[in-house]
């Protein structure tokens, strides 16, 4: 590459060379298996049980959502494997070398939220583990403003500090950690199913638990009003990785490796984890008389040496998943904002800091807030970005990029002062229709008067945003990409 602009380039953002492209399909499959088997993913299906779905309905929603999100995952991941660039650099092709900061920050902020959520879960596992060992509850009285106990705050900060050890190790350490811990997680899932079947008297009573939506049930006739936003939330769960997947696929040895690894590593393991989740959660209805959707809370209720081991695994699992899924992407994104001053490591520190400030425990207070406000809400922002990237890369540029120009101020992607108006307009058009519904969901006491049309549209947030933004961008850019620019070697 000829001398790139230092305002747009550093070693972490540079295209990967052949020597760096060492990830084979099993590395991607293990990466996904490690990220999939995590507490927030478990809480997807268990949360749907708590919302009234039957086991089959919950598993179907999770599996279908992950089959859908696999498509943009592979389409956008193709760019990383072919050109070796991370997401924050790929976005320059459509948004412009300066405008790309908008989708980078959007993705980074959402990832910071997830980083905080995972850190809260990991801290909770540590606190529960210590409580089981000592034989008492250690949460403490709620603190003013924060709403959590001293014990909860200290365990959260302790786990936060533990994870920072991996910030300096880079992606190689993440790949190794995920590869070695993935089989352990599979064993733990098997043990959870065994426990549920033993305590509930087999699978029969578990799968005969009726849906709350059947005739005579407490939510009779309301199935589709819950299923549709739940499906959007399932897609939204991995909508973050669907954007920044080039951060990983840029290390793929071949295009086949990233495609096969992701196809094997995402939908089926998510479906199997959903099965583990619904079996266990449905069993808690039989055992405890209520659905316990949080596995950390469930572990504390069960007690015993097996729980100590399980909580240790949860802690290890949370570290590996959180670093891979929620720190790598935003670290690159923040680095792209100011390459001269912000390295990958510094970007990781920024991510970790924001993850504390958002007070993630607030997002997990209820299944309604977690699934229908947080997941569906940010999918309304990320769906349009995915639509723009896919249309630009596949339909307009036919997968051909001028990689050198992605790092040049006066290159093919400078547009107007570094901004592509078409991408910004398309993003606004994609987000705007979902805004009223999001406000009604996030703050019903303030926006309870939002009409049924807008709240109904919001249940399809990711799909609506992707389709609208992609269509508007395609129309506005028609004829403006007359010929593919020069490609990378």
What are the salient characteristics of this protein?
489 residues; mainly alpha
Task: Briefly summarize what is shown.
It is built from 24 helices and no strands. The chain has helices spanning 25-36, 39-50, 55-83, 87-90, 92-95, 101-134, 150-163, 170-200, 203-207, 223-237, 239-244, 246-249, 255-265, 267-288, 295-302, 305-326, 328-337, 344-357, 367-396, 421-431, 435-442, 444-447, 452-458, 461-476.
Multimeric organization: single chain
The first-to-last residue Cα distance is 9 Å
The number of helices is: 24
Provide the residue-averaged pLDDT: 84
Along the chain, the helix and strand elements come as: HHHHHHHHHHHHHHHHHHHHHHHH
Strand fraction equals: under 5%
Helical content stands at: 55-70%
Unreliable stretches (pLDDT < 50, length at least 5) are none
Please outline the major beta sheet.
Answer: none
Number of strands: 0
Which class do the helix and strand fractions yield? Answer: mainly alpha
Task: Describe, in plain words, how this protein is organized in 3D.
- This protein has 489 residues and is mainly alpha-helical.
- It has 24 helices and no strands.
- Helix 8 (170-200) runs antiparallel to helix 16 and helix 17 packs across helix 18.
- The longest helix has 34 residues, at 101-134.
- The radius of gyration is 22 Å and the shape is globular.
């Amino acid at each position: 590459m000829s001398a790139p602009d230092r305002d747009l380039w550093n070693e972490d953002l540079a295209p990967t060379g052949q020597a760096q492209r060492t990830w084979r399909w099993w590395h991607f499959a293990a990466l996904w298996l490690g990220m999939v088997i995590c507490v927030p993913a478990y809480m997807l299906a268990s949360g749907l049980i708590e919302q009234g779905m039957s086991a089959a309905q919950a598993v179907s929603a999770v599996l279908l959502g992950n089959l859908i999100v696999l498509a943009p995952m592979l389409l956008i991941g193709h760019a990383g494997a072919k050109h070796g660039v991370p997401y924050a650099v790929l976005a320059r092709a459509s948004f412009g070398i300066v405008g790309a900061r908008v989708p980078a920050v959007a993705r980074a902020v959402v990832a910071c939220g997830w980083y905080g959520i995972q850190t809260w879960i990991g801290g909770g596992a540590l606190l529960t583990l210590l409580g089981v060992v000592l034989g008492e509850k250690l949460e403490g009285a709620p603190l003013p403003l924060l709403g959590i106990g001293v014990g909860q705050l200290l365990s959260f900060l302790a786990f936060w500090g533990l994870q920072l050890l991996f910030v300096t190790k880079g992606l190689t350490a993440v790949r190794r950690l995920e590869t070695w811990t993935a089989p352990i997680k599979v064993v733990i899932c098997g043990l959870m199913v065994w426990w549920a079947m033993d305590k509930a008297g087999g699978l029969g009573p578990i799968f005969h638990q009726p849906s709350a939506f059947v005739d005579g049930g407490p939510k009779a006739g309301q199935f589709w009003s819950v299923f549709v936003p739940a499906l959007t939330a399932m897609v939204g769960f991995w909508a973050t990785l669907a954007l920044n997947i080039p951060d990983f696929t840029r290390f793929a040895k071949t295009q086949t490796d990233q495609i096969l690894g992701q196809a094997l590593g995402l939908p089926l393991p998510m479906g199997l984890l959903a099965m583990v989740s619904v079996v266990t959660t449905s069993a808690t209805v039989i055992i405890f008389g209520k659905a316990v959707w949080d596995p950390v809370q469930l572990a504390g209720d069960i007690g015993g040496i097996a729980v100590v081991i399980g909580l240790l695994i949860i802690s290890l699992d949370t570290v590996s998943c959180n670093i891979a899924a929620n720190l790598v992407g935003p670290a690159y994104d923040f680095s792209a904002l100011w390459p001269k001053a912000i390295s990958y490591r510094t970007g990781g520190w920024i991510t970790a800091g924001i993850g504390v400030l958002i007070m993630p425990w607030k997002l997990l207070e209820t299944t309604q807030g977690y699934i229908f406000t947080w997941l569906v809400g940010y999918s309304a922002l990320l769906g349009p970005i995915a639509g723009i990237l896919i249309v630009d890369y596949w339909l307009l540029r036919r997968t051909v990029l001028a990689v050198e120009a992605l790092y040049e101020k006066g290159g093919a992607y400078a547009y107007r002062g570094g901004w592509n108006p078409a991408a910004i307009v398309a993003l606004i058009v994609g987000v705007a229709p979902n805004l009223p519904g999001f406000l009604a969901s996030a703050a019903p006491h303030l926006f309870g008067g939002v009409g049924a049309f807008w709240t109904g549209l919001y249940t399809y947030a990711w799909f609506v945003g992707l389709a609208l933004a992609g269509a508007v961008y395609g129309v506005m850019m028609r004829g403006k990409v007359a010929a593919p620019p020069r490609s990378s070697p």
